[in-house]
Amino acid sequence: GSLKEVTSLSRFLDEQMNLPHDPSAPYVGMSAFAHKGGIHVAAVLKDENTYQHIDPTVVGNQRRVLISELSGRGNIMSKVEEFGMLGQGDKNPKGDPEWKERSGAILKTVKELEQKGYTFEGADASVDLMIRRSMPSYSPPFEIVEYSVHNDDATPTANRNQRWTGGNAGDYNSKGRKVARCKAVVGVRVSSGGMSDCEDVMTMCDLEDETTHLEVERGNGPVDALAKALKKALLPTYPMLRDLELRDYKVRILDAESATGAMVRVMIEFQLSGP
């Protein structure tokens, strides 16, 4: 068989065996052909053979350029090309003084944020947004106008009471225990391009600006409620969000000594489930 199927076969086996993919696995790992350092990336962009023992496409893998505090302008420009952000007049962006200045500003921002605990090595979507926001033609697709979360206690259902009292539930085995309910209210101003008419009775539209949506949703905790309300507000304009699914997320406390006031880093992974 062809060696080009090795990477896809490896990941297929991981899925079937319910094992996490090892990013550092030789040849087939996501990091097998990853490059991070500025000088390192500059060399690879000129000649891949300088830091790669084989062409990654031979085994069905691909080269990855990571963004970090060790990056150089070459890392940023590699991402610009990868994300397809170069215009027809940008055939040689490395020599363009505007792109040079822009990539330098992005790189400075990355280094400042990483000093505060951010990380961009596995966050290509964040890098994509950072680059887009640096472009003169950028216009935000939506704007959060307001949001709030309300929590209240409710009497638990008979089914939940039965689960609590059916075993050794410790402090949960209490007849007086309440169930926390969360309700989120989100106001969003959406870009007018492609907006549908505000005919949905569940959507409240500002009379002076029909692109402003105010949505209310309940959820399993404040984050779930906020996510549902935001998604509901954006769906009329961006129906593709209906197929957007959360795959995984990681939360890390960066300065535990600050207790409840600690800075928290969240890494979120999404995928489109549609065809």
Tell me what the structure shows:
The chain has helices at 6-16, 38-46, 73-82, 97-115, 124-133, 158-165, 222-234, and strands at residues 34-35, 64-65, 142-154, 179-190, 204-206, 209-219, 244-253, 264-272. It has a 4-stranded antiparallel β-sheet. The longest helix is centred in the middle third of the chain and has 19 residues, at 97-115. 15% of the residues are buried. It is globular. By secondary structure, the protein is α+β, with helices and mostly antiparallel strands.
Q: What Rg do the Cα atoms give?
A: 24 Å
Order of strands across the main sheet: 3-4-6-5
The rough form would be described as globular
First and last CA, distance: 28 Å
Secondary structure layout:
Layout: H1 6-16, E1 34-35, H2 38-46, E2 64-65, H3 73-82, H4 97-115, H5 124-133, E3 142-154, H6 158-165, E4 179-190, E5 204-206, E6 209-219, H7 222-234, E7 244-253, E8 264-272
Parallel strand pairs: 1-2
Antiparallel strand pairs: 3-4, 4-6, 5-6, 7-8
Helix pairs in contact: 2-3
